[in-house]
Write a structure and sequence with these properties.
Elements: H1 5-23, E1 65-67, E2 70-77, E3 117-120, E4 137-144, E5 152-158, E6 164-169, E7 172-178, E8 184-187, E9 202-209, E10 234-240, E11 243-251, E12 258-266, E13 273-278, E14 283-288, E15 294-300, E16 314-320, E17 323-329, E18 334-337, E19 340-343, E20 346-348, E21 350-355, H2 369-381, E22 386-389, H3 396-405, E23 408-412, H4 424-441, E24 447-454, H5 460-476, E25 481-486, E26 489-492, E27 495-498, E28 509-512, E29 529-532, E30 538-542, H6 561-576, E31 581-584, E32 592-593, E33 606-607, H7 620-637
Parallel strand pairs: 21-22, 21-31, 22-23, 23-24, 24-25, 25-28, 27-29, 28-30, 30-31
Antiparallel strand pairs: 1-10, 2-3, 2-4, 4-9, 5-8, 5-10, 6-7, 6-9, 11-12, 12-15, 13-14, 13-16, 16-17, 18-19, 19-20, 26-27, 32-33
Bound molecules: (2S,3S,4S,5R)-3,4,5-trihydroxy-6-oxo-oxane-2-carboxylic acid.
């Protein structure tokens, strides 16, 4: 018998509680001096921090799954008539029932099966002209058959849905999710009807609402398109009763010759054996979980390290009972020492570029593997070894492609501009999104930086909020570096200082500056001196100027390619003078849609700061950066392993 909505709600709550334990993972970490400490669990994050996080199954693509991608029937519902009755109370007969008239006199005022479809994954804005600016609810429905093997469990997994999502299976509520860019899943084992040969045995109905919310993450105001919908893949993931929920396999922090990590099983009663194999490296380890389903490990290994020059990935397999998972994982170390960033012990300069998750040529949100590779290919042509994935977690195709292509990644959460710092629900939401993105990507060698925020104004409530986020990130991943895109201020006409108190919690200081665009004219950069309150590496995480591709004129004429080119020439000269600079990420690789950009004939709802147009045509400024990056690559190529005069560290 299918559970009632009440019993299911209880079930979901119980399941989530179990996940809190799962996310409170034991992590292998080093002390601030960089010497690897003995393996041991970190204190659990406070329960409230991760409340509501769904039991994320890591690496769903690497498991037995059935894709629900393709056409879904869709109903555009700006007044949420499918959820509320005429008193604006939740209705028992909402569209999630997927009701059908049983008699000619029945009155049912919706019908999924005759409604126009929308493609999943995909945003709705770029699929129908009438939805370009739409912000509100769309209902999605998909029927599916599934033969659940005996002794197996079924999860419904969403790569992402923007922004607030409610999910029902066969008319039963299974859960909701807030946040537009991170994965979530629900167990539906008890709800799914066993296949009896009919195509429409089961149906899933999803309400996706992309209305902006003041208390949301992000909040009301951004500079990117609010693409709504089921923007990433939807999958049924079938796992045995006892299954590998999550794992971390990476170099021990501070080491280049030891692997450390853990595997977590769900559903195990008592200790279980787990096999870890990295065939190419001759590694085969028999592990054993403890009473809670957790196995930790640490052992020496001789590996070819992952780097942008040689993005070596090893096939890693984990097997436990009837379950097994396969992943491609690279091994590298990342640390800081003073103002240096050390990759595999050598000082590097992050020759970066910022990217939005917007498809080249066609526009819109969802990125295929090929589109991710096109964007990252342009980054490589620029001479980059680094990308800033702004301003929210991009799809997994992107970080997987970065792993394969050898691009270091800055990953961030949409804590952008003016968040409701004093609202505890907003903080909980931001922590969940951060946790979900870390849980998804902490086996990606490419990801070296978790960024907590972008251009957030300093205040006590904001500092407290972001310090909490820093703690969440450290708890979930003590091996990567923390950063944030900070603001700066002038102490006199020629001196700019970065001293945001958040810097105390970061390993790498990010800073956005628009000297020569929002702040004076390009030549202003020539006389500026930069100072910092921190003995830490600086990454200039944004600087840029708009140019409409193909618009030419004098270097003094805004919006022309020549103005943008001259802007970058002045910038490069200024940046080259900053002694503690260890990375740059100009704003931005490709022009992108923005509802804030209105200048007719120039912007037309596009932010034109791209170094390439949305059609992939390079602007003149592209070549200025390219030349500088070539020079930097040569300069850093011979960097010796950093002398261990001071301990490498990530202050905590
Ligand atoms: C910024 C923001 C970025 C904007 C950019 C701009 O500082 O971080 O999201 O798109 O400036 O173009 O103004």
């Amino acid at each position: 018998m299918a559970p009632t909505r009440q019993s299911l709600r209880r079930h979901v709550t119980l399941r989530r509680t179990a996940l809190l334990a799962a996310l409170a993972l034991p992590l292998l970490h080093a002390d601030a001096g960089g010497a690897p400490a003995a393996a041991g669990p970190l204190p659990d994050p406070p329960a409230d921090a991760l409340a509501g996080v769904t039991p994320l199954i890591a690496n769903v693509a690497g498991r037995h799954h059935v894709s629900l991608d393709g056409d879904w029937r869709a109903i555009v519902d700006p007044y949420e008539n499918g959820y509320y009755n005429y008193r604006y109370e939740p209705s028992a007969d909402g569209y999630f029932r997927n009701a059908k008239p049983q008699h000619p006199s029945d009155r049912i005022e919706y019908d999924f099966d005759t409604s126009e479809p929308l493609a999943v994954p995909g945003d709705w804005n770029s699929q129908r002209e009438s939805l370009l600016f739409y912000e509100g609810t769309v209902w999605y429905k998909k029927s599916f058959r599934h033969s659940l093997r005996p002794g197996h469990r079924l999860f419904l997994h969403f790569g992402a849905a923007n922004y607030f999502t409610r999910v029902w299976v066969n008319g039963e509520f299974v859960g909701d999710h807030e946040g537009g860019f991170t994965p979530f899943d629900f167990e539906i084992t008890a709800l799914v009807r066993v296949d009896n040969g009919r195509r429409d045995d089961n149906f899933v109905v999803v309400q996706v609402d992309n209305k902006r919310r003041r208390e949301g993450v992000p909040t009301l105001n951004t500079d990117w398109w609010n693409y709504g919908g089921l923007t990433r893949s939807v999958r049924l993931v079938e796992v045995p009763e006892v299954f590998i929920q999550d794992y971390v396999v990476q170099l021990a922090r501070g080491s280049q010759g030891e692997i450390a990590g853990w595997v977590r099983l769900q559903g195990a009663r008592g200790p279980q054996p787990v096999l870890l194999r990295i065939r190419e490296a001759g590694i085969e380890r028999q592990l054993r979980t403890d009473e809670t389903g957790l196995a930790t490990f640490r052992f020496p290994a001789r590996l070819t390290l992952w780097s942008p020059e040689n993005p070596k990935l090893y096939e890693v397999t984990l097997a436990a009972g009837a379950d097994s998972v396969r992943d491609d994982i690279g091994f590298r170390s990342i640390e800081t020492r003073g103002t240096d960033i050390l990759l595999n012990g050598r000082s590097i300069f992050l020759r970066g570029i910022c990217l939005h998750e917007e498809a080249p040529y066609r526009g819109g949100r969802a990125l295929t593997r090929q589109e991710a590779e096109t964007l990252l290919g342009w980054a490589k042509e620029l001479g980059s070894n680094f990308v800033r994935l702004a301003h929210y977690p991009h799809g997994e195709e992107m970080t997987r492609a970065a792993d394969r292509m050898g691009l270091l990644v800055w990953s961030e959460v949409p804590v952008y501009w003016t968040i409701a710092w004093e609202n505890p629900a907003t903080l909980a939401n931001a922590r969940r999104q951060l946790a979900e993105s870390i849980v998804r990507d902490r086996n990606r060698a490419s990801v070296i930086l978790w960024s907590l925020a972008n251009e957030t104004p300093v205040s006590e409530p904001r500092n407290t909020f972001l310090a909490e986020l820093a703690r969440t990130a450290r708890d979930l991943d003590p091996t990567r570096l923390l950063t944030a895109a900070l603001e700066h201020h002038y102490v006199d006409d020629d001196t700019v200082v970065i001293d945001d108190p958040l810097g105390r919690h970061l390993d790498v200081i990010g800073c956005n500056e628009y000297v020569g665009w929002y702040d004076g004219l390009p030549a202003k950069a020539d006389g500026l001196e930069w100072k910092t309150a921190y003995d830490k590496p600086l990454v200039m995480s944004e600087f840029g100027a708009c140019a409409r591709q193909g618009l030419h004129g004098d270097a003094g004429a805004r919006w022309t390619e020549e103005f943008q080119e001259s802007f970058f020439e002045h910038q490069v000269r200024m940046l080259a003078r900053i002694p503690f600079l260890r990375g740059t990420a100009p704003w931005i690789l490709m022009d992108f849609r923005s509802p804030r950009r209105h200048l007719p004939g120039v912007q037309d709802f596009w932010n034109r700061k791209g170094l390439v147009s949305d059609q992939g045509v390079k602007k003149k400024a592209f070549h200025v950066m390219r030349r500088w990056y070539d020079e930097l690559a040569r300069r850093y190529a011979g960097a010796e392993p950093a002398a261990a005069t001071a301990p490498a560290s990530s202050p905590r």
